[in-house]
């Protein structure tokens, strides 16, 4: 009885205990489960990974996918990633999750907008929504209610609203990243209230207006990335008061004005202000604090740097002032601590003077760790020092388009790391130096537009097996083109134009594989720690073109403006990746190779100013990419083939000054049923030409021997031409 009494007491008190403490938890958990199930039901679709999400299963909520609970069995983290889910957040009852600390929605198919209700997640510390390109609208103002938020990452969304000023209410925020979510409008000054912020990344949006001066209030900031927006106006001076700032990226905006000398006092490691409209002199001293390692200031309007600008920079590794208006001599600028420097570009400025010091050394030789040096397109003159070849880390050297002169002092050593050597458009003299023989890893060699002379050595392909790009144009090279040139297995661009080369074009293309198929690699980009745009000049569609970066898939041969003779080798037609071929202005004779139509990627073909004979091969109709053609000033005759793409080239001058071409865009061919006197003689001429062409095209030799036999009889010869003519007529009908 006593026992029963006790038990009764226990039974009476237990529900009380349950009611008093456990029930609200159970109710809360049930509400969370209901909210998730309701949201799931609202989706257009959700994959099997959400199978556990059902009320029948609500007792085990904490074991549902994508959910992590706290010790009180409330959901503390909802992390949906890579789920095949399609739907909106409209039916998501955020107020059901007052305990939620982390919400991650990564790579989902969410569309619609971010609901204002998100402001009810009052315990939230981490919020990350990544890659939902159909999520539109603005960041709701209620975001300001997330008082505990420390991390807000919204990346790769399709938003199209502004950054609300309530962002300033998130005073516990440490990391704010809004990357490529296409925010519009300006950065609200309230951002300065984020006194705990360490990382601010607003990259790749459509932000306009100026950078608010209040940004200088974010005293804990270490990383500030605002690149790729439309920010304008001057840089607020307060920015340099951010004593903890290490990385600042403002590139690709429309910022103007000068850079305050206070930059020198900052503790920055890395400053990137490229592609803006900054101007004036660069600050006289940028390394007072002494930690700077990279200054990327290309594509602005800076007019000068001070001699002592880099004086105390003991850690400087990268200096990029490409494409400014800098008028300066560089010789003293890096004299103090040159050994750290790895990357230096002053390309496209007005840098003048020489690279040699008074003692004939030049100053760059103390930059023993240089990887990349680009001084192209400046006004430098004088000779080069031998010491270039001792820079054992050098991978990229571009001195093109200056006024350097003299013999390039190649030494017997060439550092194996050297991959890009660009000396074009100077006044260098001397021969194709044996010193290059050791540069075994060279991929790009441009000596064009100088006064180099002598022959092209036969060792070049054996010694430089990695070469992709070889340009020797506009020099005074003479002699024949060595047949070894066709031993380059990786060459994609060969430009020997405008020299004094003679003899035939070598013709065994078996090993010349670099152009044998479409290439999609980006071999003309240089990237080390720092990716860099390589500029190489090629003549493309009769216009000089400075190729900025990536000539993905570019393949071409230019042998124009020499004195090359004999036939065009049929082997060219095996170079299926070829996009341009220029053989103009030589003494080439014979016919155009029959199989030229194989070159379906060929966009530009110039065979003008030679002595080519015969008809234009029917295969021309297959040149489906051709957009630039010149066959003028040859001895071609017959009907111009018709093809869909060829038809678009309707400028008659591209066929002008030949023996007798007819058909669109020239005059119609006169019907052969009423041959005029001229036609008859032309026909006779054509017969000999056909004969000739089959020899030139290297028609299958067995067949040729057979025909040779037949041709002894005039009758057979006549029927053969009849046959050929009929074949042509047939094909014309098909076209
Ligand atoms: C998502 O659902 C909407 C509406 O049913 C539909 O228009 C859209 O194509 C779906 N998207 C995907 C990626 O399935
Ligand atoms: C919070 O949720 C309630 C519904 O539970 C809603 O009425 C309210 O608008 C939400 N608060 C905000 C700021 O959106
Ligand atoms: C952002 O700018 C780009 C380029 O100007 C434009 O195409 C796009 O529509 C803009 N997006 C928004 C949301 O304004
Ligand atoms: C954002 O995009 C939506 C849908 O495309 C459009 O209705 C809305 O007007 C846009 N808002 C802004 C501020 O551009
Ligand atoms: C939130 O931000 C708005 C706009 O900046 C401001 O007016 C409001 O006072 C802030 N609220 C709180 C509680 O700080
Ligand atoms: C924030 O920055 C502004 C402008 O630089 C300044 O006037 C103000 O005093 C700063 N506020 C705080 C709290 O530091
Ligand atoms: C740099 O800091 C020093 C010491 O604090 C100060 O004297 C000097 O004026 C500052 N220079 C600039 C340009 O702000
Ligand atoms: C470099 O440091 C020295 C010694 O501290 C100082 O006298 C000089 O002014 C500094 N130069 C520059 C350009 O910062
Ligand atoms: C290069 O370094 C050497 C040895 O450290 C030094 O004697 C020489 O003056 C430096 N040359 C230049 C141009 O700074
Ligand atoms: C140069 O090329 C050789 C192979 O030809 C390779 O073994 C070597 O690692 C390369 N050196 C550099 C520095 O790239
Ligand atoms: C190039 O150098 C040669 C020989 O030194 C000289 O005759 C010629 O004038 C120079 N050409 C230019 C454009 O400087
Ligand atoms: C192609 O290269 C191989 C190997 O180097 C060589 O033996 C062969 O003679 C070359 N063929 C031609 C046609 O040059």
From TrEMBL:
Where does the chain cross the membrane? 689-711
Bilayer disposition of the protein:
Single-pass membrane protein
Q: InterPro entries this protein is in?
A: Leu-rich_rpt, Leu-rich_rpt_typical-subtyp, LRR_dom_sf, LRR_N_plant-typ, LRR_R13L4/SHOC2-like
UniProt-annotated location(s): Membrane
Question: Single GO cellular component annotation?
Answer: membrane
Keywords of the record: Glycoprotein, Leucine-rich repeat, Membrane, Receptor, Repeat, Signal, Transmembrane, Transmembrane helix
Please give the superkingdom of this protein's source. Answer: Eukaryota
Signal sequence span is 1-20
Full protein name: Leucine-rich repeat-containing N-terminal plant-type domain-containing protein
């Amino acid at each position: 009885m006593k026992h029963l009494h006790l038990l009764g007491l226990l039974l009476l008190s237990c529900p009380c205990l349950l009611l008093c403490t456990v029930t609200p938890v159970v109710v809360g958990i049930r509400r969370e489960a209901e909210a998730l199930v309701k949201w799931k039901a609202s989706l257009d679709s959700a994959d099997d990974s959400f199978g556990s999400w059902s009320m029948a299963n609500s007792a085990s909520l904490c074991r549902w996918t994508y959910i992590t609970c706290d010790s009180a069995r409330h959901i503390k983290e909802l992390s949906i990633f890579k789920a095949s889910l399609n739907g909106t957040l409209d039916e998501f009852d955020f107020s059901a999750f007052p305990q939620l600390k982390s919400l991650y929605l990564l790579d989902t198919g969410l569309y619609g907008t971010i609901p204002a209700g998100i402001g009810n997640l009052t315990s939230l510390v981490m919020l990350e929504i990544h890659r939902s390109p159909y999520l539109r609208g603005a960041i709701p103002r209620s975001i300001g209610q997330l008082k505990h938020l420390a991390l807000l990452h919204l990346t790769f969304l399709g938003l199209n609203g502004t950054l609300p000023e309530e962002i300033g209410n998130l005073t516990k925020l440490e990391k704010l990243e809004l990357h490529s979510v296409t925010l519009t409008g300006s950065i609200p000054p309230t951002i300065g209230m984020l006194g705990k912020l360490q990382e601010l990344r607003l990259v790749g949006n459509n932000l306009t207006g100026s950078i608010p001066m209040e940004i200088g209030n974010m005293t804990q900031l270490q990383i500030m990335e605002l690149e790729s927006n439309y920010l304008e106006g001057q840089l607020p001076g307060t920015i340099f008061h951010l004593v903890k700032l290490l990385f600042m990226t403002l590139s690709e905006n429309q910022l103007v004005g000068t850079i305050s000398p206070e930059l020198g006092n900052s503790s920055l490691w890395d400053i990137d202000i490229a592609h803006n409209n900054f101007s004036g002199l660069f600050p006289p001293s940028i390394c007072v604090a002494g930690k700077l390692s990279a200054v990327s200031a290309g594509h602005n309007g800076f007019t000068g740097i001070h001699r002592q600008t880099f004086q105390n920079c003991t850690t400087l590794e990268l200096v990029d002032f490409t494409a400014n208006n800098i008028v300066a001599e560089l010789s003293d600028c890096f004299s103090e601590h040159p050994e750290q420097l790895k990357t230096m570009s002053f390309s496209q400025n007005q840098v003048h003077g020489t690279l040699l010091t008074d003692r004939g050394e030049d100053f760059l030789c103390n930059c023993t760790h240089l990887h990349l040096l680009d001084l192209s397109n400046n006004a430098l003159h004088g000779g080069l020092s031998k010491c270039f070849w001792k820079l054992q880390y050098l991978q990229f050297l571009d001195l093109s388009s200056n006024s350097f002169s003299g013999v390039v002092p190649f030494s017997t050593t060439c550092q194996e790391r050297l991959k890009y050597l660009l000396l074009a458009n100077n006044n260098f003299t001397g021969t194709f130096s044996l010193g290059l023989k050791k540069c075994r890893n060279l991929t790009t060699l441009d000596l064009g537009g100088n006064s180099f002379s002598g022959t092209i050595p036969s060792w070049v392909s054996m010694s430089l097996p990695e070469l992709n790009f070889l340009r020797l144009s506009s020099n005074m090279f003479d002699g024949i083109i060595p047949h070894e040139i066709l031993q380059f297995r990786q060459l994609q661009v060969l430009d020997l134009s405008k020299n004094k080369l003679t003899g035939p074009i070598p013709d065994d293309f078996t090993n010349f594989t670099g152009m044998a198929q479409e290439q999609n690699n980006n071999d003309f980009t240089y990237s080390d720690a720092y990716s860099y745009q390589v500029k190489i000049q090629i003549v493309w569609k009769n216009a000089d073109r400075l190729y900025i970066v990536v000539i993905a898939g570019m393949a071409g041969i230019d042998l124009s403006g020499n004195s090359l003779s004999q036939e065009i080798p049929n082997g060219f037609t095996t170079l299926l990746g070829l996009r341009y071929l220029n053989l103009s202005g030589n003494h080439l004779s014979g016919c155009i190779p029959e199989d030229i139509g194989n070159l379906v990627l060929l966009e530009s073909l110039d065979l003008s100013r030679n002595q080519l004979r015969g008809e234009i091969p029917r295969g021309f109709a297959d040149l489906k990419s051709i957009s630039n053609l010149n066959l003028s000033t040859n001895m071609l005759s017959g009907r111009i083939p018709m093809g869909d793409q060829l038809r678009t080239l309707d400028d008659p001058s591209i066929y002008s000054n030949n023996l007798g071409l007819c058909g669109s865009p020239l005059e119609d061919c006169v019907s052969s049923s009423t041959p005029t006197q001229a036609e008859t003689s032309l026909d006779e001429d054509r017969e000999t030409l056909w004969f000739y062409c089959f020899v030139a095209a290297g028609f299958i030799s067995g067949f040729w021997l057979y025909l040779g036999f037949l041709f002894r009889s005039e009758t057979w010869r006549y029927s053969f031409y009849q046959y050929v003519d009929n074949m042509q007529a047939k094909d014309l009908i098909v076209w």
